[in-house]
């Protein structure tokens, strides 16, 4: 992205956004409510035109090569886009057919198992919990193995176990070479997942770096001796247990 600008009437949301996301990396875009994260994602996925500046996705210009960009990406929007009347498996089969793939049933079954949805696969999505919908939504976006994936606040509203499951899924994607650009308001999510982190504030990227680089922006921590207290999340996870015992970083 170079110099991306976007206004809604007088509201100047993006005022020159410059960002590079390395192929095969996980990049987290942080920002408060209304900072413009979804606007960036919508421009990169060709749903919205920028007023100025340029952006390339998988080598294709979003303004002039929209069809090539769309073939290279998949987008999991901020709000789950699943069909409630169909079952989870039917949702997956539908997307696989829309992508003109063969063996749609096998693709659906594989994704159901990767996202711990096999048992729920034959149930209507209307009966799913929020976390199950979110996992199904992400599973749908993986069909066809697009090289670039946008995840707009993938874990907002999920319980701690479901968040960890989504994180594991995202890590597996990156290990497989997929480029992931995710937006989040959860700072721990960025710490857990991202190779690089950028903060969008008042229309511009105010910092961009690895976690270590960002931490070095503040004075080094003083050494203090305090009793280590478990966090509420530790307590919650110890009592409830993690759904899939995962490799946390
Ligand atoms: N279609 C639109 N018309 C007018 N204003 C809009 C439109 N879409 C977004 N905005 C405004 O642009 C700003 C940025 O919105 P955007 O959705 O990109 O923020 P965000 O960083 O994704 O926020 P959140 O964390 O709440 O999802 C907000 O002030 C929003 O009200
Ligand atoms: Mg948003």
UniProtKB/TrEMBL annotation:
Signal peptide: none annotated. Its main location: membrane. Keywords: Antibiotic resistance, ATP-binding, Nucleotide-binding, Transferase, Transport. It comes from the Bacteria. Gene3D superfamilies: P-loop containing nucleotide triphosphate hydrolases. GO terms for cellular component: plasma membrane. One of its GO terms (biological process) is response to antibiotic. It is a peripheral membrane protein. It is found in: Cell membrane. It holds the Pfam family ABC_tran. SMART domains: AAA. One of its GO terms (molecular function) is ATP binding. Coiled coil: none annotated. Residues 1-227 form the ABC transporter domain. Belongs to the ABC transporter superfamily. This is Glycosyl transferase family 8. It comes from Actinoplanes auranticolor. The lineage of its organism: Bacteria, Bacillati, Actinomycetota, Actinomycetes, Micromonosporales.
């Amino acid at each position: 992205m170079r110099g991306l600008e976007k206004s809604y009437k007088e509201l100047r949301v993006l005022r020159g956004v410059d960002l590079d996301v390395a192929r095969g990396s996980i990049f987290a875009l942080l920002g408060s409510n209304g900072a413009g994260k979804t606007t960036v994602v919508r421009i990169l996925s060709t749903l919205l035109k920028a007023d100025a500046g340029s952006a390339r996705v998988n080598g294709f210009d979003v303004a002039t090569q929209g069809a090539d960009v769309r073939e290279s990406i998949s987008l999991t929007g901020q709000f789950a886009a699943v069909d409630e009347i169909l079952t989870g498996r039917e949702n997956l089969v539908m997307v696989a057919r829309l992508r003109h793939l063969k063996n749609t049933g096998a693709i659906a079954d594989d994704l159901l198992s990767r996202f711990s949805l096999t048992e729920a696969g034959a149930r209507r999505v209307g009966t799913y919990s929020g976390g199950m919908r979110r996992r199904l939504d992400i599973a749908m976006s993986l069909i066809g193995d697009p090289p670039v994936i946008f995840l707009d606040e993938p874990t907002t509203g999920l319980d701690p176990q479901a968040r960890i499951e989504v994180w594991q899924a995202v890590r597996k994607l990156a290990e497989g070479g997929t480029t992931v650009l995710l937006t989040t308001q959860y700072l721990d999510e960025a710490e857990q997942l991202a190779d690089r982190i950028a903060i969008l504030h008042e229309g511009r990227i105010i910092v961009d770096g690895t976690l270590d680089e960002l931490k070095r922006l503040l004075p080094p921590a003083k050494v203090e001796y305090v009793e280590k207290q478990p966090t509420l999340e530790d307590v919650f996870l110890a009592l409830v247990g993690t759904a899939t015992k995962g490799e946390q970083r």
